[in-house]
Amino acid sequence: MSEFRSHVKAVEDLRGPVGRLEGILNTGAPDALYAVVVAHPHPLGGGTMHNKVVYHAAKAFSSFGLPVLRFNFRGTGLSEGVHDDGRGEVEDVRAALDWLEREYRLPILFAGFSFGSNVGLRACCGDARVQGLCGIGLPVRAEGRDYTYNFLPGCGAVPKLFVIGDHDAFAPRVVLEQALVSAPEPKRVVWVEGADHFFAGVPGSPAPKLDVMSAAIRAWVGDEFGL
Question: Which of 41, 62, 119, 211 could form a disulfide with 26 if both were Cys (CB 3.0 to 4.6 A apart)?
Fold first, then answer.
């Protein structure tokens, strides 16, 4: 399909368990079949909903005319509350799902980058409202923090996409591949050649790889959801 041009507006009524969550909505087409939420990387590392990977992921989904919600976790930007080491942030993702459900009454697709992928997958796996799961740059160990994926078997038979740079210092390929084995089919694992954690280039392949990451999302959406 031809690329859809959405409008961007602030979300004023998104609230989590500890208060308001700052959000941005890429508006969708009137006949959109899905709504999307995208979660950002670790706030203590500077992660926000304006992160480049998050922005490009949102743009990839928006190109299909889907409404896309990005939001800041508690304690980030204008979001109320304080950072909760990934515990309360699971509830923040669920608050975003609740908002999308109220606003659109559509099946939901989830995408998250880094910390946002781990937290968001934990929130969304097994939630009947979520019909597609996309984990980008899933971390295993980052800045002294360990991430586990023993929840993946509970994610059910919804389509799943995992996109990781093959030079991601936070995601040793052997370790992450072992973890992803437990995710039920259907699933697609894309290792982006010459990409680091942020899908920037690496020595020997210096060009940014954000376009490759975005193309993987668009291909998955087109193949799995018929858009």
Answer: 62
> Measured at the alpha carbon of residue 173, what is the angle toward residues 169 and 175, in degrees to the nearest 5?
100
Strands (E), 15-158: 15-16, 19-20, 23-26, 35-39, 68-71, 108-113, 130-136, 141-142, 145-146
- Structure tokens that stand for 171 in this block: 């995601």
Sign of CA dihedral 121, 113, 106, 74: positive
State the CB neighbour count (10 A cutoff) for residue 226. 7
pLDDT in tens, 57-91: 999 999 999 999 999 999 999 999 999 999 999 99
Q: What are phi and psi of 81, to 5 degrees?
A: 90, -175
pLDDT in tens, 122-169: 999 999 999 999 999 999 999 889 999 999 999 999 999 999 999 999
Separation CA 60–CA 66 (nearest Å): 10
Q: Which helix (H) or strand (E) holds 163?
A: strand 160-165
